[in-house]
Amino acid sequence: MVEAVAGxxxxxxxxxxxxxxxxxYGTLIVIAIYYILPLYVMVVTSLKGMPEIRLGNIFxxxxxVTFQPWVKAWAQACTGLNCDxxxxxxxxxxxxTVPSVVLSIVIASVNGYALxxxxxxxxxxxFTILIFGAFIPYQVMIYPLVIILREIxxxxxxxxxxxxxxxxxxxxxxxxxxxxxxxxxxxLFKAARVDGAGFWGIYFKIMLPMSLPIFVVAMILQxxxxxxxxxFGVIYTKPEAYPMTVQLNNIVKSxxxxxxxxxxxxxTILTGLVPLIVYFVSGKLFVRGIAAGAVKG
Length: 297
Description:
Helix 4 (87-117) runs parallel beside helix 7. By secondary structure, the protein is mainly alpha-helical. It has two domains: 19-66, no CATH class; 91-246 and 274-294, MetI-like (MetI-like fold), CATH 1.10.3720. It has 13 helices and no strands.
């Protein structure tokens, strides 16, 4: 009896130039060009001198590379009455961002942990209020916060702006942490309770070691939002305490003298450099945190 010849095993080979791949990669390439092209224009313009910029070809690479626009944007450009560049605004932004991020993440993580694992009386009402707060337009709260900060003596000062960012970051971060802690197996929590661990023991010894991805998600969201903020910075601080974004606006909107586009581009890149670096350094953990339950119901 002749045995039947078996066919080829394994999955069917996929053609590299199939219609599906052409559409998929073509779309991704177009989207990538759409986002990369403005960055390319900013970089090449910031490395050109003004005589070369006046020729009008914004896409051509610099014939003679110069870093003078970067030096002027950092230390010499006028941002109002002062002509010390973005350096002062950079340190103001650091003083604003670091404590705001730390305070909002610490408080929100404890809130989310309590709402997910400790059902206290009124927890649902508290959570509803927090969610409602996440969707209140910022503009509604501007004037009341001005009055409150003035009454407590923090209006126009950096600690007042830190307080504002901490408060506004609380609702959405609490939601993220609650959803993440809900996705952690409840058996771990119950086993720790049986072993005699209390509220803080479970939080520090079990929840925190398992929550690095969601902490990175919260950190990236807060750093990006606070560092790039302009509205709160210009309202709740004074010129000597302006963050980097407000000083960038003063440089770009300056109407005195010649408009130096290379300095403007260099200042723009310098202002956006910090959140860009943070995202590239911790991007993988950001994706893990989102996929592990950060946006689950």
